[in-house]
Amino acid sequence: MLSILLPTDFSENSINAIRYALEFYRDEDCKFHFLHCYPPVIFSYEYQIERGLVGKNIHDIVQGETKERLYELAISMMRDHGNGQKFDVEVVTGFLPDQVARVASDNKIDLIVMGTKGETGSDRVVFGTNTIQVINKRCCPVIAVPEGFEFNGIDNILFPSDLNLTFSYNHLKDITKVLELHQCNVNILHISFRGLTSTQRKHKALLEEAFSDHKTNFVVEDSKDVTDIIYDYQQKNKSELLVMINNKHMFFENLFFKPTISKIAMHLSTPFLVIPA
User: Fold this and answer.
1) Of 166-175, 187-196, 204-213, 256-265, where does the model show the most confidence?
2) Residue 188 is part of a domain; what is its CATH number?
3) I need a surface site. Which of 111, 165, 205, 219 has the fewest CB within 10 A?
4) Residues 220, 192 share a domain
């Protein structure tokens, strides 16, 4: 049974990501963990008087009300988009990326699904800060769902790789799980700067063997700009899921911090599965 963590701040963006996750795993035996995290708040005396909360444990009251709201959301989402799977709810206070990492560890979470939204007024950050920080915790795979994206099945996965990472079962099992669940194809996009080395050829062969039960297409592109190649490929070849492995020697963080948002805006149009190395 898969354990899937669904963080939400009750925004439409996060609710849409929950909807996507429930539809994505509709036919899978899994348990969904709904999580809301709010920062520590100091409530004014005027607020306490207005709510009739003077002398009471206001934090416990607010947490209880929030948990009830989260439970109602979970019930509604499971009724409309679930398929009888188990679920639970949890409300915590603190810094979201830290709490997500803790909850993921405590509950042996297999996957996190969360919404993405660019920073308002910023021309540098494509995904919201919380999404980047959760991804870089590397506690487990994350699917980042663009704002407004609706799940309509998966026919093709796009998997860019520099082929320098020695792939293991743990790296690839999340990809093969999607391939098996949705009977889709995988397009491996290698962005080359000088042709394949012997190590890269070996890793290419390992990938082809790992995905031998599925339709696999291997594409080599020459470029100095990773984001241009990914963008161009997505424009010409339909894919419903972008997959990357987040290992430290790669270009991962630079993928999100660029001079202009226009070069990498395509990352907001396709859900992004990020697998920690």
Assistant:
1) 204-213
2) 3.40.50.620
3) 205
4) yes
For the sheet with 142-146, list strands across it.
Answer: 86-93, 30-38, 2-7, 111-116, 142-146, 272-276, 241-246, 156-161, 185-192, 216-222
- Residue 70 has which token pair? 């989260």
* pTM across the whole model: 0.86
Q: Please tell me the total count of domains within the chain.
A: 2
For residue 31, the one-letter residue type is K
pLDDT tens track for 33-44: 999 998 766 555
Q: Are residues 86 and 181 in the same domain?
A: no
Same domain, 168 and 211: yes
User: Residue 107: which residues within 8 A CB-CB, separation 6 or more?
Assistant: 3, 5, 33
Q: Are residues 128 and 161 in the same domain?
A: no
CA distances from 103 to 5, 186, 201, 252, 277 (A): 8, 31, 39, 25, 20
Q: Check whether residue 25 and residue 86 sit in a common domain.
A: yes
Q: Is 54 domain-assigned? A: yes
Q: Tokens 């849409």 label which residue?
A: 16
181 by Cβ neighbours in 10 Å (0-12 / 13-18 / 19+) ranks as middle
What angle in degrees, to the nearest 10, is found between the helix axes of 58-81 and 12-24?
Answer: 40
